[in-house]
């Protein structure tokens, strides 16, 4: 009969669950390697920009077929894995932009509704406004506000 025996580990502390671990690293590369990395960065930046432009051009009509076509075109210029990452990233950016746009439009609708409510209020003369303020102040005083 075999039993799994767990041995305690001493000298380490466990990271709290609510925190995330971030590892930073620096690359020390030669001048030639730096040029290669910069060239790759420009290449992938170009692919990402083109794909995002195509995704935006597709608009709401984009579906899985369009996504597959975009990925297939990118695969000719990079690996399938990178093409998948680029197209997914483009889709995510487009969806985030659309959510932000809808949120902004909802905020504008709320602002318009507030202005319409204020414009619908009757216009009082200065004597009526003074009387209304006094009534509101008295009500606040009785409510201990």
Features:
elongated; about 140 residues; 4 helices; about 70% helix; mainly alpha
Notes on the protein architecture:
The protein is mainly α and 145 residues long. Helices cover 68% and strands 0% of the residues. The chain has four helices and no strands. Helix 2 crosses helix 3. It is elongated, with a radius of gyration of 31 Å.
Q: Can you count the helices? A: 4
Oligomer: single chain
Total strand segments: 0
pLDDT averaged residue by residue? 85
For the CA atoms, what is the radius of gyration?
Answer: 31 Å
Q: How is the main sheet built? A: none
What low-confidence regions span 5 or more consecutive residues with pLDDT below 50? none
Order of helices and strands: HHHH
Q: Report, as a whole number of angstroms, the end-to-end distance.
A: 75 Å
How much helix is in the residues? Answer: 55-70%
Q: Strand fraction band?
A: under 5%
**What structural class do you assign from the helix and strand content?**
mainly alpha
Instruction: State the shape.
Output: elongated
């Amino acid at each position: 009969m075999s039993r799994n025996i767990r041995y305690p580990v001493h000298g380490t502390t466990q990271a709290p669950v609510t925190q995330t671990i971030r590892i930073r690293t620096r690359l020390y590369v030669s001048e030639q390697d730096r040029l290669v990395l910069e060239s790759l960065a420009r290449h992938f930046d170009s692919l990402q920009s083109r794909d995002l432009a195509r995704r935006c051009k597709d608009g709401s009509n984009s579906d899985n077929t369009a996504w597959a076509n975009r990925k297939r075109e990118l695969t000719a210029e990079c690996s399938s894995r990178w093409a998948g990452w680029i197209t997914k990233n483009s889709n995510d950016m487009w969806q985030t932009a659309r959510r932000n746009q809808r949120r902004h439009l909802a905020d504008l609708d709320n602002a318009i509704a507030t202005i319409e409510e204020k414009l619908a209020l009757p216009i009082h003369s200065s004597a009526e406004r003074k009387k209304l303020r006094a009534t509101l102040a008295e009500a606040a005083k009785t409510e201990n506000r």
